[in-house]
Amino acid sequence: MLTYEREREELADKLSEKGITDIYVLKAVREVERHKFVIKAMKQHAYSDVALPIGYGQTISQPYTVAFMTQSLRLKSKARVLEIGTGSGYQAAILEKMGIDVFSIERNMDIYLKTRKLLDEIGLRIHTKCGDGTIGWDEFAPYDGILVTAGSPTVPESLKRQLQVGGRLVIPVGNKNSQILKIITKLNDNEFEVCDVPEFSFVPLIGREGWNQK
Ligand code: SAM
């Protein structure tokens, strides 16, 4: 049987073969213990490159998606990043391991409390709050990067506003089943450069500037 450490090595190698080149992202994948972020019944699949259920109808994203989105931000150490959709906390943990100052918002109170407890137990310094992430977290803006880990019908204006000039916003946009990943660079307060990457599938982003609850 492979040890978790060996499984992480193999996962990082697989992500590298799939086109992840950022050495800091790959290093974080080797370090973050994904098996601690998945539910008990899924532990044996923790290092498979697949999304897994975390309860409450939500998922922990596929490692390739986490790595690709993180790499797309092109971050420098000590950058400030806002994540919308804390979920299991795995994406936030990858960012924290890279030396990023992480702010993460989760709308589901049960998920928020469970993940907050886990992050404290592991000793990860991540700022979290429970609320509607579609309106961002104004208090700590601007952010060098913003990651949205749920699929949105449009790009929330609040998130564009809270992005630093030169910063990147990575967000899946489309219908509730399938989305295009938009990598949006803020050129100045009014101009944005957009790069589209097909084809992703995230759970819906629900909120004031996302999908309605029903
Ligand atoms: N980043 C997560 C991880 O590493 O496990 C995966 C997130 S999961 C695919 C999407 C999460 O977004 C869910 O936990 C869901 O409750 C949350 N979510 C949906 N709409 C939201 C909103 N408006 N604000 C904050 N979180 C939201």
Using the CA coordinates, give the radius of gyration: 16 Å
Q: Share of helix among residues? A: 25-40%
Alpha carbon gap, first and last residue: 44 Å
Tell me, briefly, the overall form. Answer: globular
Give the bound compounds.
Answer: S-adenosylmethionine
Strand order of the largest sheet: 5-4-3-6-7-8-9
Class from secondary-structure proportions: alpha/beta
The CATH level-2 architecture is identified as: 3-Layer(aba) Sandwich
Question: For this structure, what is the CATH class?
Answer: Alpha Beta
Largest sheet: 7 strands, mixed
Mean pLDDT, to the nearest integer, reads 96
CATH topology: Rossmann fold
Secondary-structure element order, N to C: HHEEHEHEHEEHEEE
Number of spatially distinct domains: 1
Q: Supply the number of helical segments.
A: 6
* Quaternary organisation: single chain
Strand content: 25-35%
Instruction: Tell me how many strands there are.
Output: 9
Task: Point out poorly predicted stretches.
Answer: none
CATH superfamily: Vaccinia Virus protein VP39
Provide keyphrases for this structure.
214 residues, alpha/beta, Rossmann fold, seven-stranded mixed β-sheet, two-stranded antiparallel ribbon, 6 helices, 9 strands, 28% helix, 27% strand, globular, binds S-adenosylmethionine
